[in-house]
Design a protein that fits this description.
Layout (H helix, E strand, L loop, with lengths): L1 H22 L4 H9 L3 H29 L7 H17 L8 H11 L3 H32 L5 H25 L2 H18 L10 H15 L5 H24 L6 H17 L8 H12 L4 H30 L5
Length: 332
């Protein structure tokens, strides 16, 4: 039933996107002209910021590994391709950033690292990124509310995002405060699969859960060591907004960093609550709607958003997917 609902939701979104494009087809020539005459200097700036954005994702991962004892900053070079592969997996699958864990567990298996600690570091990074986005979202919504442009759709999206975030935090806190609770949570997916396949329940190894528990215990014992990770998480979003800013400037949509920040925050929020991987359709709609509300012509706004999505979605998806395919090899 869940699969059918996802398929139905995908069809509905695609039909809505097609209808929206058709209704605004008169803006397509303007979007085409904006793309053809895009400023190379601003495009180069967007590409440079994208590199910094990628670097910050790696720094977020190594900072969390430093805190949890799974590694540290010295792993930056080695974890660069692993992190990019993880980003690609998360963009390809709507999983709440869980899909990207596969790249790190494969790397841990090749290097003989404790899987629980690696998992703990990755989940800490994923949770830090979500909490850090709250800072960016708060800044963006504060500007929207100040300008009187806060719409009902944005309020609903905020509520849905908050519910999901609080649910995950509560579940994580409940698990890490008790080793036994964490063990039960850890083996639950395997036991559920046994029941669905109607096969005898098998004993499950909980050593990885114990490693995870100990890794998170180190974070609780020294919370100040998590400050760098939070800073890197916030920088990821600020650099993402900077990519949008440079993309908009490239197509002649104006050089307004605050507007870019608002559009980034709202569009990312819509992408998180959207049903499609990578927020396809939802991000584009959210960003274009915000930009149009600030007086950017819709065709030019659409061109800027397309450039932005090329940088932060399609390129990481392609490169990350290729790296994920290569990293699945058991060779060192």
């Amino acid at each position: 039933m869940s699969y059918r609902l996802r398929v139905l939701g995908t069809v509905v979104v695609l039909v809505a996107i097609a209808a929206l494009v058709w209704a605004n087809r008169h803006e397509l020539p303007a979007a085409g002209r904006a793309l053809r005459h895009a400023d190379p200097a601003w495009l180069a700036t967007a590409a440079l910021v994208l590199l910094l954005w990628t670097v910050n994702w790696v720094l977020l991962q190594v900072a969390c590994r430093e805190v949890t004892g799974a590694g540290g900053y010295r792993e930056f070079g080695r974890l660069l391709p692993v992190t990019v592969a993880s980003l690609g997996l998360n963009l390809a699958v709507k999983s709440g950033n869980v899909a990207g864990l596969a790249a790190f567990t494969a790397d841990a298996r090749r290097r003989g690292l404790p899987r629980g600690r690696v998992t703990g570091a990755y989940l800490a990074a994923a949770q830090t990124a979500e909490v850090a986005f709250v800072v960016t979202l708060a800044l963006g919504l504060a500007v929207v509310a100040w300008d009187g442009r806060l719409e009902r759709a944005e309020i609903v999206a905020v509520v849905l995002f908050a519910i999901g975030l609080v649910t995950r935090v509560v579940a994580l806190v409940a698990a890490v405060r008790s080793r036994e609770v964490l063990r039960r949570v850890w083996v639950w997916p395997g036991r559920l699969l046994d029941r669905l396949l109607r096969r005898p329940e098998r004993p499950r190894d909980t050593s990885a859960a114990d490693d995870f528990y100990e890794a998170v215990a180190e974070v609780r014992a020294r919370p100040l060591r998590a400050v760098p990770a939070m800073c890197f998480g916030v920088l990821v979003d600020l650099l993402g907004a900077a990519v949008l800013w440079a993309s908009l400037a490239a197509v002649g949509a104006g050089d307004r960093p605050v507007v870019a920040l608002v559009a980034y925050a709202v569009s990312t929020l819509f992408g998180i609550v959207g049903v499609l991987p990578g927020g396809i359709g939802f991000v584009e709609f959210g960003a274009a709607a915000v930009l149009a509300s600030y007086g950017v012509p819709l065709g030019v706004a659409a061109a800027g958003v397309l450039v932005f999505r090329l940088f932060v979605f399609w390129l990481p998806l392609a490169v990350g997917g290729l790296l994920a395919w290569r990293l699945r090899s058991p060779r060192e």
